Amino acid sequence: MSIDQDIKPVQSLTGFREDLAAELASRAKAVRPLLESKADEHEANSELSREVIDKLTEIGVFAMAGPARVGGLAQSSHSMAVVAAELAKGCPSTAWVYTIYNSCLWFASKLPANIQEKMFAAGVPLICSPQNGIGHLVPEGDSYRLTGRWSYATGSHNAAWTMVPALSPEQLPVLVVMPMSDVRLDYTWHVAGMKGTGSDTVVATDVVVPADMIAAFSDIAVAPPATVDEDVRVASDYWVNYPILRAKALGVLVGCAEGLLEVVAAKSGSPIIYSIYAHKSDSSAYHAAIGESAVQIKAARRIVEDSCRRIDAAACEGRVFSIEERTEARGEGALVIRLLHEAIERLMDLGGSSGFTTTAPAQRYWRDFAIGSRHVLFNSQISYEQTGRHLLGIEPGIVDPDML
C-alpha cells in the first residue's frame, strides 16, 4: 500500500506544541559547550558519552517527535530542524543521533498498541532502527526465530530498543521490535566523519521474537497509520516518511556550516601569509568570500525552514504531502546541500591548512558535513533528475513515491 493515500483533510486535528519550540531551541543552544567538550571523546569511542545522553534526555530533545499519547513533546519538523542545527554547532555526531532517535520515536508512535505498551513502559525510550538489511523469520510455536544483519544502526550503542525490517514466512515485509539486549553489535562503523554516531551493524542470530512484537509494514508505513484510531490521530500521524527524515537531517548540515562560519570569522584578525595583509579582515577578497558564504548558508537555512513549515502545515490540515510536494521538497534539499557544500569549501579555503589539524573544530564540521550530506536520504543527482522528470510529465519517476 502506498503512503500516498486519498485521505480527506481533517477538520479538527491536534497540531504541534509551538509553545515549547523556543524553549527547546534555547536548551539546545545552552548545551553547546558540553557537546564541544565531548566531541573528541565521541569520535574516539564511536558513541555519545553517557553524560551527553543523560543531559539531552533531561532537556527533552530526544522526546520531540513523539506525540503526547506516547509521552512525547509533539514538536514540528521546523522545531526539530532548528534544534538539530544548534546541536550540530557543538557536535555534529550528537545532532545526527538526535535526529535518528526522534525519527525512530515517531515511527514507534505508529506501532500497534501492544508493542507500544512494552516499549514505553518506562517512559520515552531511545530506539535505533537500521534499515539496510533484511531479516528472516522462522516460526517456532507461538513465536518466531529471527536471523539477520542490519547496518548503519545510528545510536545503537545507547539505544534500549531496535526495530528492524524482515520477511515473514509468507515473504511479506514486517518490522520486528526487540530489546537491544537480544542482539549484538558488529563494529563496522569505520569512517572519516560522523564518527561519534556509533552507526554499527545490528546482528540477530536465532533470536526468539514473540509474535505480538512483529508489525506489518502495510499498517504502519502509510499516512495516517492504520494502527492509530482516527479519534486519537494528531498532526504527526500525517507526516510522510522521507520528507520528515530529510527535514531534521538538513538541520544538522545547516548547523555544520553555521558552526564553521563562526570559527572562520573568529580568526579574521590573523595575517594572510606572504601578502601585504596583516589581518585577513583587511582584504577585500576575504570580505567577498566570507560574505558569499554567509549568504549561501542563510539562504540554505531559509529553504530548510520554509520546507519544514510546508510539511507541518499539511500535517496540521490532516493532509498527506502530495507527490508533487514531496518531489519539490527533495529537490530543495539537493539545492540546500549544494549551497552549503560551496560555502563550506570556500570557508575552509579562507581558514587555510591550519583548519585541517586534528584539534581544529573546522575539520570536524568539514568531515561530518561531507559524510552527512552523502546520506542516501539526499543523493542530489537523483533528486534533480526526479524533479526534472516530474516537471516534464515523464512517467514513471525514477524514485518510488514512498521513497520521495
TrEMBL record:
Domain Acyl-CoA dehydrogenase/oxidase N-terminal: 35-104
Record keyword Phosphoprotein present: no
Domain Acyl-CoA dehydrogenase C-terminal: start-end pairs: 252-379
Matching SUPFAM superfamilies: Acyl-CoA dehydrogenase C-terminal domain-like, Acyl-CoA dehydrogenase NM domain-like
GO molecular function (one): flavin adenine dinucleotide binding
Keyword Repressor carried by entry: no
Protein name per its UniProtKB record: Uncharacterized protein
Organism of this sequence: Mycolicibacterium insubricum
Lineage: Bacteria, Bacillati, Actinomycetota, Actinomycetes, Mycobacteriales
